[in-house]
Amino acid sequence: MAHSMNVNVSVETPAESIIQEINYDGQEIYQPPLSMSENLTRLAQKIDFSKPIIDEVKSEPNDGEKIEESIQETPLNNASVNLPFEAIAAKIRNAATEICVLVDVLNIAREKNYMVLDPVPQEPPETKPMAHIYSRKKALFQAGSMLTSAAERLRTTQSETNRSRSNADFHIELLRLRQNWRLKKVSNSIIGDLSYRTAGSKFPQTGMFEVTKADDDDVTNTNGNVSPAQSSTVTPNPQQSALRVTIPTELQGVAYIMVLCQKDDERLFNTSINLLSSPAAPSNPDMHWQQKLEAAQNVLFCKELFNQLAKEAVQLQAPIPHMVIGNQITATVLPNIQLVIGLCHSSGNEITKQSNNSNLTNKTTPQKSNHDHVLEHSLHQLLREVHHKNTHHPFPHPSSGPLGPSTKRYLAGPNAADRYELLSLTKNSTLLEQIIEQAQHFFMRIRAEQVLDTIAKQIKDPIIISHWNSLNSPTQSSVRVTIISHGFDFMCRTSLLVHVLQKSFRCICKDGKIMNLSYECEELRNLILCQIYHHQMVGIQNIAKSMGWQLLASTPYLGIGNVEPLGNASSSILASPLGDRLIAIRCEPQGKVHVSIAHSPRKDFFSGQLVKERKWENLGGPFKEVRWDKMEGKNFLNKMELLMASLTSSS
Amino acid sequence: MESKEWLHPQAIGSSMDSLGAALKSNIIPNKEYLLQGSIMDSSVEVLLHRLRGLCDNVDTGAETFYDQEMCFSIRGSSSSSSMPQLLYLRVRRALDSTMPQEMPCQLRYTGEPELGTGDKARPTIVRSSVDVAVTPSILEYLTELGARIEFEYVARGYMFRKGRMKITVSKIFKVSREGQGSRPEDLVSQSYLVEMSVLAPSGQDAIGEDMKAFAEQLKPLVHLDKIDYKRLPHTIP
Q: Which residue ranges make up each domain of chain A?
């Protein structure tokens, strides 16, 4: 028979998973195998804590009889022992039993009714004093060594910081420097800028300085004379800092602008001034970097200022041309008065002398007191204003307008400004012109003060009071001059306002007259004198009114008598209330007064051949002059008052 | 002296010559380089602080402005083309001037942004812009010419400058007809418009680079970019 010896044997693994469901089409759905935690849960659920423990007590009885029973029972026990966690459950049950027993014992012992805990007396341990001491010593030694090691560590760190403080100091100093000055790092070095570029200056000279670390060998050099025993720990000088700044040579030292106003008594070429006869204190190299940088910045500012002034002095055309010689500009302010502006720069140890064409016999050294600090400050302010204008351009309103043109230019278009207005917009006065104006005004003010003070000192009869206005500008001031007589200030007061301008005076009198005077002091003096005698006349008239006397005639410009060198004499004629006395006063601008009195009915009337009737005695007698210096009275008006009082007859 | 100049005919002719020469030599600033961006109200304080530090004149602080702008359109005469060209003109005046005399209004023409060969590479919008200062009677004048008001708005904000660049941070309001003062519903949006512009003659492209570099410094707060108006989604009311 041709049976195939091959038998198809199919080998299948037994199904591990339980079949949950079989679909109609034969597909089997397996239950997914249990995960590890599910398996553990299943096993743990089989533990039954309520079953009694099958312990070894049962193996105690005699082995003969019970061995068989135990053997018979062991298959049963084996089945239960094969459950997992049975050993663990048994041990837990044992532990629970033991603990319950212990708790019961402790509770009973606590009540002390049935059981008492009693300590067992023990032998005292042997004391070995030496071992005790040795152990203590060892412990202390260990503690001591730990403390000393800690102290050592602290000391080493402190010495580290002492040595490296220069490093920490350097960074802190650099931070301070950075807060005050602009620095930037270029490859390896730190470069700073001390010029006024960002503030609006357009000066081509740069103000760059370099910042370096102050080296340690410099420190030991300065402390070289310290005894070697002390040089082990070199503490840095408190004035020295860890930074060093290197300033370009042309900016080193201290500079300032010297402004002098002097009378030009000598010839023009003889104005040789040794500007640095009294230089500033030489800068010590150990100066703090802040002061060094500030001094260098000041030097740069002064250089820019002088440069600007020198350029303008050359370009401007003045009636008397300005001179620029070396570091000095000479400009004529008023006739015979010159303004000298010089740049004084003392750099470091060396003092650069600027004496040019010096006249050895007559070398005028400027005193420090002549230097005008106010004008120097004004110069600084003017240059700062120029800087400010360079940066602060006005913003356009509305905002869509172009930046740049000034407000006047914006308005020039719609307001139809003509060519001249536009040209005047472009003109602005230069620094030199402005400072010359200020110097001129300064002199005018001094002159006005001198004139008023001299007059006030010389003339005591009417009192002259001058009140200077506290608000003024560098080019204009004003003073109010009041003339009163002592004791009669309610009666009569003359005041005038004097505006002191750059090159002239303008006087505004109470009656509205405006007089423009030139820069000569004599004109102002003459005007004040004329006002004084005018005051006297007005005073007399006011007194006469109050005393009841009549003013018969008054002439401010008298054409008779001597010709006055200054102004005109004025006169008044007063009559007494009863009409029997007459007073004639003639006032001269130089201050002299002539007073004459007359009796109206003549005392010395004698009827003669020509004049027969008595009535002609009423024409009035001749005037007799009063000796005014012998007259009683404190001042002129007082004397007049007393005279009028004495002449007033009561009948 | 003055009358001689006034009657001199050469004075008038020379001004035309100088104007022609100026136009030829390319010194009249008639191009505007522009970058725009916006920032939310909540962050504008930070931006203002930043601009105060970066821009010129730190000590004086920010300059405020309050302007009203009106846009007019004039229909040009249709000579050859079929469609008449519309010309847009803007009149801007300051409402906050403290000076005794009123600042003049600005009449402004802005053209289309320039499309050149290197347009993608150009960092900023470049458009021709002509500014003229005029008296307030410009409104009547334009109305007489036949211009119609397209829209108007009020802008209030701060102005900064850095060198030649002008940076404005402003808030746009609708013009309230009834009374003065802007009520909350007059706000157009809850953000500020940031613009950076330079007026310069044409051909100076280095300005665009400078503007872009400065815009980089404002980067995380506000992105200043050139905005293509044609690509913006246009909602027709």
A: 19-110, 132-166, 171-224+238-391, 434-534, 536-605+615-650
3-class SS string, A282-333: CCCCCCCHHHHHHHHHHHHHHHHHHHHHHHHHHHCCCCCCCEEECCEEEEEE
A400: chain B residues, CB-CB within 8 Å: 67, 69, 90, 92, 106, 108, 131
First to last CA, chain A: 202
Contacts of A52 (CB under 8 A, 6+ apart): none
Residue of A nearest to B63 (CA): A395
pLDDT digits (tens, 9 = 90+) for A349-391: 443 333 322 333 333 444 445 677 888 888 889 888 888 888 7
Test the A interface: residue of B70, B159, B160 with most A CBs within 10 Å:
B159
Single out the residue of B126, B129, B209, B195 nearest to residue B167, CA to CA. Answer: B195
Task: Tell me, letter by letter, the H, E, C secondary structure of A214-235.
Answer: CCHHHHHHHCCCCCCCCCCCCC
Residue-range domain boundaries for chain B: 27-230
Which residues in A278-302 are b (16+ Cβ under 10 Å) and which e? ebeeebeeeeebeebbebbbbbbbb
The 10 Å CB-count burial string (b at 16+, else e) for A454-470 is: ebeeeeebbebebeeee
- Dihedral angle computed from the Cα positions of residues B52, B55, B56 and B61, in that order, rounded to the nearest 10 degrees: -20
**In this predicted model, what pLDDT tens digit does every residue of A144-163 receive, in sequence order?**
999 999 999 999 999 888 77
Q: Which CATH architecture has domain B27-230?
A: Beta Barrel (2.40)
The residue type found at A287 is M
